Request: fold
Amino acid sequence: MTVKEFADRFGLKPLSLPEPDREVQGGYCGDLLSWVMGRAGADAVWITIMSNVNTVAVASLSDVSCVVLAEGVTLEDGLIRTAEEKGVNVLTSDKPAFTLASEFGGAV
Amino acid sequence: MSEFLNFHYDVDGENFVSAGQASVELKKVLRRLGFPPETIRRLSIAMYEGEINMVIHAGGGAADVDIYEDKIVIRLIDHGPGIADIDLAMQEGYSTATDSVRSLGFGAGMGLPNMKRYTDEMRIDSTVGEGTTITMTVFITK
Ligand SMILES: Nc1ncnc2c1ncn2[C@@H]1O[C@H](COP(=O)(O)OP(=O)(O)O)[C@@H](O)[C@H]1O
Ligand SMILES: [Mg+2]
Reply:
């Protein structure tokens, strides 16, 4: 499944979608950046409520397929541009991380 | 193999928000040179953790990256406080990071362990009051 298909299927709102055709594979949930870098695999969906410039950097360097911001968390405008420039897909949802993970489970 | 490329990056100790610039630059260079994605991922994360450590624990520093055909060597050099007990610092979860650093998502005490996990060799030379040099090597398997 591509990130675009994934966003459509689960009703996630794209904030930055520079790489819509990237494949989604597996996932990781967490807000502590070193845990994410140590545990999330390449192409993973990363669910978090941490939204700052470091989130975008970690997503890029860890090569995850997209960040899903839970609980209605968004990215400030400047960071949306940074994410687009760095090729980082960022989606958002009003649902909590637990709900999102249980919905995605099995699908990615 | 004597031919190699060298890249030097200064890591600004004042600017925590822009920390990661050297890692992003390195990632671009490695992509341009056509290294495998997983090699790039490992090096990018190891470099980023090292860069963040220099910013949050050592007031900045410098990174030298030597790119050979069969290996990549990253040297992180700072003149910060040094690490008194390296075995302790290497333990998962050990951190002296401040609350403000933690509120940004860092300070989980997993940085040095990640650097070790994602590289083939890692060596820490540190003297209290003088600084720290960390050398990490990743071998390129064809
Ligand atoms: N370059 C450095 N200079 C001085 N101390 C360091 C340096 N890098 C790491 N440390 C020490 O080692 C500890 C563990 O580092 P690390 O595993 O990266 O965790 P964290 O950065 O989350 O605290 C740090 O909290 C700090 O006390
Ligand atoms: Mg660290």
Summary: Helices of chain B lie at 21-32, 37-58, 86-89, 99-102, 111-117. The pocket of adenosine-5'-diphosphate (ligand 1) is lined by residues A 34; B 49, 53-54, 57-58, 78, 80-81, 83, 89, 94-97, 106-113, 132 (CB under 6 Å). Chain B has one domain: 5-139. The radius of gyration of chain B is 15 Å.
